[in-house]
Amino acid sequence: xxxxxxxxxxxxxxxxxxxxxxxxxxxxxxxxxxxxxxxxxxxxxxxxxxxxxxxxxxxxxxxxxxxxxxxxxxxxxxxxxxxxxxxxxxxxxxxxxxxxxxxxxxxxxxxxxxx
Length: 115
Description:
alpha/beta; Rossmann fold; 5-stranded mixed sheet; two-stranded antiparallel sheet; 3 helices
């Protein structure tokens, strides 16, 4: 099975990142696992880490503004996500993003691809 996780942060700081990483690395033993997030690393846009294929959707921008999740960042990430996601064909797409704007990109992908 080929699956995609969508979450902008790909470093292990919060609960959602830890959840995706722990589930993803276990699933990667038998499945193809991708994680679409902001590119917080130097180098190539797509890298592999512990069996998970990480896709840097866009350049790094602050997740928080004045102590709150940034709406501008979420819209920016959502806008950059769909063109990257649409290039693949996934069986499962898991998106647990907040603010919710990337969920609209994931839904559009799912409707288009039938995931």
